[in-house]
Amino acid sequence: MTNRIQMQRLIIIALLACAMVAPAYAKKHGGGGGGDRNPIPASEGRLPRASLQPHLAPPSVVPPNPAPRFPVEPTVFLPPEIKIAQPNLPSLGDPLADRITSSNGPGSRGGIGTGEDHGVGPGSGPGVGPGGGGGFGGERFRVGANGIGEPVCIYCPQPPYTEEARKTRSQGTVLLSITILPDGSPTEVRVVRGLGMGLDESAIRQVRQWRFKPVIGPGNRAVTVDLEVEINFRLL
Known about the structure:
alpha/beta, three-stranded antiparallel β-sheet, 20% strand
């Protein structure tokens, strides 16, 4: 009977671990989009130059009319190490589009695509692809590259010990992988190296409540970054 109860407890712990380790949501971070409310789909074309400086001019398939007296080169907010396949076309456009339409697309606020905010694609940032905040859809900015500093935690209480871990005197370090959003909140908390005995779940629950200073990147923009954090459990 005792062995059966222990087995049931282990199954419950395993199920809880699976539920807690799963990301809260699989949202794309990084990207951009735009358009000029043209119902014709955005045109296929090459991207303008990638830049980590603030936009001086949004990309556009259609040349401005009248032409500006002092033309400015359009750019997209994209780290230079991110490589995107470009079609062999002379005109600007969305490299992920499937036809040449000479249209900026049905998005808004300039740029090209179905999104908004001066980028290219279906997102809401000045970068490229789904998501928002610059960069390429699904890509994060890397700590230590392109002027991205280490995230600073401003509210990070220690996760509590579990009763089960106390009884077995379990100690050690739980290594978590997290994504810090531009507002400083963590998401997609996952266990890289765990301890069991309920300590992994305790670490995940607590870290989801942590808050960081927004990580500022090029152009004085808050960006999304990935980070690994160690949670130490030590019995006094």
